[in-house]
Design a protein that fits this description.
Layout (H helix, E strand, L loop, with lengths): L9 H8 L11 E10 L2 E12 L4 E5 L4 H4 L1 H11 L8 E7 L11 H11 L12 E2 L2 E2 L5 E2 L4 H10 L4 E5 L3 H4 L6 E5 L2 H7 L35 H13 L3 E5 L5 H11 L5 H14 L14 E2 L7 H5 L9 H4 L4 E4 L7 H6 L1 H6 L1 E6 L2 E6 L3 E6 L18 H9 L3 H4 L4 E5 L4 H4 L8 H18 L13 H8 L3 H12 L5 H18 L6 H11 L5
Parallel strand pairs: 3-4, 5-8, 8-9, 10-15, 10-16, 11-12, 12-15
Antiparallel strand pairs: 1-2, 2-4, 6-7, 13-14
Helix pairs in contact: 3-4, 8-9, 8-18, 8-21, 18-21, 19-21, 20-22, 21-22
């Protein structure tokens, strides 16, 4: 994409306006650029407008959906209400490439600019290569749209430099390094920026509606956790290696409290990861541009009544679900067996591939959904069935059915599966100091640094993502070291997927201990963290 002449600042353009004559040459062709979003990825779209003889009207071709086709009426009204009269000829607008579906009202501004250039209201080739994003109102003002930030990112990747966006979205677009952004309140501002002459209508800019701000996560400190030494250690291992975690225990054992400690143990996101998270929030309408590039890992804790559609997303173009809102963060599902079966089974793809492939009547889209899953479960419907408790009112069949709601294929994808015993009085009256989140987070950060060095230049960055075959080949375990795993595999205690997950956990244990490779004791400890009781 060739570099276009930059749009000028509004104050500079208006100062040049007085005393300058309008270009006498009439132009019948205009061209500019927009972006077609598909999730948080985008395709640059060339917008061409041609004015030819024929019945007056505007045709839009190039696989537009209904919202893009309807822009004809909005654009004609907006241009007319700015005092510009279109010629009584036929205007044809082509959106290229024609094989990419164009969805949404963000194409309005680009189409209007291409038409105005074809009508000679904007100097020739002035808008070429500049990306225009925005929805037009009937009075010519530019309304904010969702997805501006991922649109700017997509344009930058395609080689664009200059972007014209709604004034209300300018702060959001400015979060992207390397993008030259101009905010415009109305269509007249855009015409002036591009060197045309038009009277300023003096209309107030449309403000960005208050974002449906996400509630802050209920983050706790590990110092608040009483007892549960095994669970605290398992949580540290999960944080260090990015492992998925299942905690099973009676109500009040501290499962929810421990899950709320996990976000504080995770290191901040790097810039690329933070951009992905912010791009998803832009699509979701929950982005607060004033907060800047937030590098805090997301934390999502949906209610067990949440539907599969709300979890996966994609009910309409541009919508995302809970899985994608948890991208690069933590998804906590409390009372996991109470979630609907289709919700639980929908977890399989993001756990394996880190994405959701969505196919709906309106089209298909791929949404990133790489999160760390934490499940919490009672041992039985009444919640008391641990350690032979006499308070449990459930039959053995009830307990088996309840546990069976978490299917074998799903559980096979959960790295650490922990049984938590109820608290006892000694835990409450213990006087020894408990490690706080900051102390444990420092160990987690050191383990993450070791992994970053180990996996430098590879497609994965955490032990939980590393292929088991790669780890087994790299560490070249002796048969004496893997003997417990081999026995468990032969007896059906673990699957081959589970075998590799044990190796990943063992690698994290070695990283936390500062060892260069996992040893036999690490593999055995990892196997204990992997296999839960089924009685």
């Amino acid at each position: 994409m060739s570099a276009p002449p930059p749009p000028v600042d509004l104050d500079t353009a208006r100062s040049r306006k007085r005393g300058r004559s309008t270009a006498s040459a009439s132009r019948s062709f205009g061209r500019t650029t927009a972006v077609a979003l598909h999730g948080i990825s985008g395709t640059p779209v060339s917008i061409e407008a041609s004015v030819n003889d024929g019945l007056p009207g505007i045709d839009i071709v190039g696989l537009p959906d209904a919202s893009v086709t309807e822009s004809r009426k909005r654009i004609r009204a907006a241009i007319s209400n700015l005092g510009i009269t279109l010629t009584s000829r036929r205007v044809t607008v082509n959106l290229s490439p024609g094989g990419v579906k164009k969805v949404g009202t963000a194409f309005d501004l680009g189409i209007a600019v291409a038409i105005l250039e074809a009508e000679g209201k904007i100097p020739a080739d002035r808008a070429r290569g500049i990306v225009h994003i925005g929805e037009l109102g009937l009075d010519g003002r530019i309304h904010p749209v969702r997805g501006v930030l991922p649109s700017v990112l997509a344009g930058l990747r395609a080689g664009a430099t200059w972007f014209v966006v709604p004034a209300a979205n300018a702060e959001e677009a400015g979060l992207v390094d390397g993008a030259e952004v101009r905010g415009a309140a109305n269509l007249a501002d855009v015409v002036t920026m591009l060197g045309g002459e038009i009277d300023d209508p003096g209309l107030p800019a449309i403000e960005l509606p208050e974002a449906a701000a996400l509630p802050p996560p209920d983050v706790h400190d590990l110092a608040e956790v009483q007892g549960q030494d095994d669970a605290r250690f398992a949580l540290e291992v999960a944080a260090a290696g990015g492992h998925h975690l299942l905690m099973t225990g009676t109500p009040g054992a501290g499962k929810t409290l421990l899950a709320g400690c996990l976000p504080g143990l995770l290191p901040p996101l790097d810039v690329d990861e933070a951009c992905e998270v912010v791009a998803l929030r832009s699509l979701d309408g929950t982005l607060d541009p004033a907060a800047g590039l937030d590098r805090t890992p997301p934390f999502e804790a949906p209610h067990h009544r949440t539907s599969a559609s709300a979890m996966v997303g994609g009910s309409r173009p541009g919508s995302i679900g809970v899985f994608s809102r948890a991208h690069r963060g933590v998804l906590f599902m409390d009372e996991a067996p109470e979630f609907r079966r289709d919700v639980l089974e929908a977890l399989r793809q993001p756990l394996e591939n880190g994405r959701c492939d969505i196919h709906r009547a309106w089209g298909s889209v791929v949404l990133p959904s790489r999160f760390q899953l934490v499940l919490a479960s009672n041992p039985c419907p009444c919640g008391a069935g641990v350690g032979g408790s006499t308070r449990c009112r459930c039959t053995p069949l009830d307990r088996r059915r309840y546990r069976g709601r978490l299917s074998g294929p799903l559980l096979d994808r959960i790295d650490i599966q922990l049984e938590m015993l109820p608290l006892v009085a000694a835990d409450l009256h213990a006087t020894s100091p408990r490690e706080d989140t900051a102390t444990v987070a420092a160990r987690v950060a050191r383990a993450r640094e070791i992994q970053a060095h180990r996996y430098a230049g590879l497609p994965w960055s955490l032990n939980a993502q590393a292929p088991g075959a790669w780890l087994r080949e790299t560490f070249d375990f002796r048969r004496t070291e893997t003997a417990p795993l081999d026995t468990a595999l032969e007896r059906g205690g673990i699957t081959m997927r589970g075998y590799d997950r044990v190796v990943r956990i063992a690698t994290t244990l070695a990283d936390l201990a500062g060892r260069t490779r996992p040893q036999g004791d690490d593999l055995l400890s990892a196997l204990v963290l992997r296999i839960r009781e089924t009685s």
